[in-house]
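Trying the structure run again after the queue cleared.
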Amino acid sequence: MSICRRRDSDSHRGLPYTILSRARLPVPPLRQKITDSIINEKISVVKGEFFNYNICMARVISIVNQKGGVGKTTTAINLGAYLAYLGKFVLLVDIDPQANATSSLGIDHNALERGVYHVLVEPVSFRDVIQGTHHQGYKLAPATPDLAGARVELVSLDSREFRLREKLLEVKNDYDYIIIDCPPSLDLLTLNGLIAAEEILIPVQAEYMALEGLGQLLNTINLVKENLKPDLKILGAVVTMFDKRNRLSGQVADDLRKNFPHKVFDTVIPRNVRLTEAPSYGQTILSYDSKSAGGRAYEDLAREIIGQEYFIV
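Done. Tokens:
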């Protein structure tokens, strides 16, 4: 039986590659426990037994909403952190020229020589720009100020809508999840994020104004599916900035569950002071205050998403 092997994008030479780990030694206890449980799980197939391994290629999830201030970047950085905490190898790709995801992880985007912009418009590899974070198994492809010019420069390039998807192929086998933080607009960068993704996660603020632009976003996604990416799926919507003291928040969440034509996650992200404080210290909510209401919510969301995984022989 052939075994799918992966390698980390900056694995040290001489270290052995493992089946579910990209040569990170020593393996953290939680990750080792998860790895052992997967390896020990078997399924009977006809006359033999085969190990039941997880998908070899990363799940690519774009977090999209053309409305700003809905918790898109907060969701991107903290979902990625908790997926890594739960034993997954995660790459966060920041394609927002504001570079909020990059700075929220404690990286000065103004001091970087290269970032996602250079990957998209120049012959630069993703492996040349990926940065580490404070979390093991969690890495970042950062945005730089140059990314603002990509909207114009991409127009004259061949396969301009597919640049991100093509470039991600070189690292897609290095991670379990690739999270793409898209700009709060429906431009060429966001289009690249949609086409590069397999699934779309939509953060929806618990306010009625946030619901108004949802139809426009769904129309854009449908156009992408019809013309450019037929297999694009909507992973679901997640309610953010939920205030349980406000009756309006509850009404918005109920309306979304009744009328949204796709899945709405059970997890609701609360309006939480600790969530807003964490980026100012260059930290995720996991490292800043994992026991806060916001931290517990993002852990629950990560578990929901992991729960959707399936195994193949």
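Residues 56 and 173 are 6 Å apart (CA to CA). Worth checking whether this holds up in the mutant runs.
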